[in-house]
Amino acid sequence: MGELKNVVEVKVPIAASFSWSVGKYMDRYIKELKNKKLFGVKCPNCGCVYLPPRMICGRCFTKIEEWVEVSDEGTVESFTVAQVKLDRGEGGLKELEEPEIIGLIKHDGTDSCLVHRLGEVKPEDVKIGMKVQAVWTDEPNGELGDLKYYKPI
């Protein structure tokens, strides 16, 4: 590819201050992270298992209320390598010192995917179909950050 021309970057400082509820399904999902456990939901009609959980089945549109514990192992279905991140102080983009790998992980026994970081692997070594396992923080608090990343197994 040639050099990009006429590219405009606009810097807008971001100072958003608000709070919102993640809803009862994601609330339970996040609280279970404190126990280093992943919980999804299973459709009573077609049997699809969703992680992250959702209230309505995407396949048959049935309300889902059954919670199931999900394996912390899965498969990389897709991934991307990020070279930049949002610069919240200045607005615009900030170059990362080290690239971050963002994966689409399909946990064993589920029918959906979870988006999360991959760690302990170089970008050139990541492959679609690679088996991975969740890596947890040492002292989880019941928040999304309790699941640090996924590593190859």
Automatic annotation (TrEMBL):
ChsH2 C-terminal OB-fold domain span: 67-136
InterPro entries in the record: ChsH2_C, ChsH2_Znr, NA-bd_OB-fold, Thioester_dehydratase-like
Domain ChsH2 rubredoxin-like zinc ribbon: 36-61
Pfam family, one: zf-ChsH2
Protein name: Zn-ribbon domain-containing OB-fold protein
Organism: Candidatus Methanolliviera hydrocarbonicum
Lineage of the species this protein comes from: Archaea, Methanobacteriati, Methanobacteriota, Candidatus Methanoliparia, Candidatus Methanoliparales
